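Worked example (supplementary).
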Amino acid sequence: MTETTTPKIAADDPVLETAFGQEMVRQMRAIDAYGSTDNQSAAEILEPFVLTKEEKRELPIVGDPDEIVIARIQVFYNAIAALIEQECGRMAVPLVNLTHEGFGRVLITVGKLVVLDRSLRDVHRFGFPSLGKMKDEADKHLSIAIELVGEHSDVAGL
Amino acid sequence: MTETTTPKIAADDPVLETAFGQEMVRQMRAIDAYGSTDNQSAAEILEPFVLTKEEKRELPIVGDPDEIVIARIQVFYNAIAALIEQECGRMAVPLVNLTHEGFGRVLITVGKLVVLDRSLRDVHRFGFPSLGKMKDEADKHLSIAIELVGEHSDVAGL
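After joint prediction of all chains, the assembly is encoded as:
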């Protein structure tokens, strides 16, 4: 873990109070088997998701994603799935499939309906310019998913 | 590779002539980067998919699936996806997600419709009692998938 002098997420960032922010923290704590985040604030726990332009520039263009990055991607899509579930009242199941080379595909299904389907690439560079941008992306996926469930509730109920 | 005295698949097994049998051979050749199956017959290429009761009994209950077994599972579901595609005229995309411990989930999607969704376990013991039983299982998945596409063609067309 690298120490940064100015935190990339302010302790009072309003995103931390949203359902998405709280779900992200919950998911991060859920995968933390050794309690290493026990004494961390929400802002500290989510800080690894924020990659500034400068940090991104320093990462190699091609690289193998390590386990921590893969876990973070899982957390992000797990959180989206949890919010879909809360909004539509049906189980949403995420499936993250990554190759060693950092390519992959993410699906979230509700019943027999695919509500999110994304190709991933450059997984080792996973991160967002800010916490707000991360929430924007999650919100976009969430609203598309909820709309799909509404339009095809028969398939979502299968 | 282990040598067997009596082949587990007869050279004139009628399954080898079916669309499924031919697709399985095509998929096996497709992943064979070194041409090691070039001189093998269809029956020989598909032989590893047949596990007799005795062979299964000799396998450990718990084990890590090796790359060859994982490739075979991919081939089996790729073949099913290819047949779905041929029958319904729409792209069918398989997604096989396995953990190191031999558990996993397989999905095949057509548009935004999930036409196959299976949990896998004991992946290192993947195999069928006979070539005919393997085709029966594929046919079952195929007919369910085609029925789903027929019932929900709007979602399959998304």
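Two points are worth noting when inspecting this output. Chain B has one domain: 14-156. Chain B has a mean pLDDT of 90.
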